[in-house]
Design goal:
Elements lengths: L4 E6 L5 H11 L3 E6 L3 H7 L11 H8 L4 E4 L2 H7 L2 E4 L19 H13 L4 E5 L7 H9 L8 E5 L9 H6 L4 E5 L3 H14 L8 E5 H32 L3 H9 L20 H14 L3 H28 L8 E5 L14 H11 L3 E5 L4 H7 L7 E3 L3 H5 L4 E4 L11 H6 L6 E4 L6 H7 L2 E3 L10
Parallel strand pairs: 1-2, 1-4, 2-3, 4-5, 5-6, 7-8, 9-10, 9-12, 10-11, 12-13, 13-14
The structure holds nicotinamide-adenine-dinucleotide (NAD) and uridine-5'-diphosphate-glucuronic acid.
Length: 458
Amino acid sequence: MKFKKNILGIGAGYVGGPSMVMIASKCPDYKVTVVDIDPGRIAAWNSDQLPVYEPGLDAIVRKTRGRNLFFSTDVEAQIQENDIIFVCVNTPTKTFGAGAGMAADLQYWEKTARQILENSKTSKIVIEKSTLPIKTAQAMERILSSGKKNVTFDVLSNPEFMAEGTAVSDLENPDRVLIGSRETKSGLAARAALVEIYTRWLPREKIITSNIWSAELSKLVANAFLAQRVSSINSISALCEKADADISEVAHAVGTDSRIGSKFLKAGIGFGGSCFKKDILNLVYLCRFYGLPEVAAYWESVVKINEYQQDRFIANILRSMFNTLAGKKICVLGFAFKADTGDTRESPAIYITRKLLAERAEVVISDPRALANAAVDLAQEKGKISYVEDPYKAAASCHALAVMTDWEEYRTLDYRKIYKVMVKPAFLFDGRNIVDHRKCFDIGFNVFPIGKPALTRF
Ligand code: NAD
Ligand code: UGA
């Protein structure tokens, strides 16, 4: 079959996979191929066990795979065959050399740029979908223009705003799509080609076009603002605990001001996920690089409050359980960094579990989707760890429950049944404020929410 356009996604991860799947689903007359250097990941995309868990994704993949959606490891051949290339490779925080612990590690991205240059026999539109530091497009252009003169490349910035757990609905119905381009004739033509893809399922008003640097920076800033809201409410949760206020009531009262808005005001154990911390640190690094230390310090404090919130949670567990956890069994309810995903990258549960183990507690981890990733994250840890999917079995003979992920099912567990099989006095530390605290207290638990008075018998 002859397709109208051939589109390639490089990097079949949490972003490259779902976003290319959505294009294939909305544009049946386009051929969409997704490549990755990881053969295990590609095999999983070609199987019934997709490498990422996203509600609703399996059904779309079943409909499109083999029709106009293909997964392959042959990066070089696919670069040759496609004229529109989305680069969705990982851009983690650098762990070595200059900028270690702050700057973005661009090695995967640069390798891709060079591969595109080496394997291109025709002109191409190259789209940055990964989150990148401002001015990366310029570096991309420099690499791409260092080769054969008869092939040209237009670089666009089209950052992705989807969140994990809601990827399908976010991609299907985003608040906006952002496309940054050079304002040259060919830059504008490339931009129009990308706009045409998105308008296959989105109204034109939802597509924002801008200059390329604004697009790159907007992505970092959007994540920084979202994370800042979480740190803001978490900082106030500490004050609530001291002053007998209730963080849910404060968040509601503040969030009903339409200028502030009610979303992203849930206090908890701090934000996790592969991006918030990485992107803020990247922003901090850029501010320092451009000689703006005050701006850098402002944004760095968002990450510091996030760490403070996790330390507070652990300190509270230790203090409430008579300053010793040695030999006690703690059930960690939830390991994913948020509900509806199996992703555990930067999950607060990793840090908190390590701290529990350092106190020589025995840790039982339960999660409906993330146990395999949890086992990888904790593989190097010494101490007693077990993984039990069924929360009722996981809680058996534990001294405390620590809720780490806002899985909906944790709201409605039979806490009476759980209480019965636990060691008394039984403790419940609700790091997500999703359990009915009063009810659990009445059952017999000593309950420690976030940003609300504890309900305890001591
Ligand atoms: P990921 O690690 O899940 O996926 C990246 C994939 O790229 C990996 O499978 C890796 O093997 C592959 N890869 C690396 N180098 C390659 C190469 N040279 N050729 C082919 N494949 C290569 O990462 P992710 O979570 O999908 O994030 C990717 C980018 O998208 C990051 O910049 C991230 O900040 C951004 N982002 C992520 C999310 C999210 O929800 N995870 C949302 C918006 C933006
Ligand atoms: C976030 C952004 O929401 C996306 O727009 C962005 O595309 C993505 O990062 C990215 O660039 O990777 P994601 O990390 O998948 O998406 O999930 P969020 O829903 O933003 O949650 C992030 C963390 O904040 C989670 O640990 C969550 O539990 C926590 N959070 C969120 C709170 O503690 N309170 C809230 O009110 C909201």
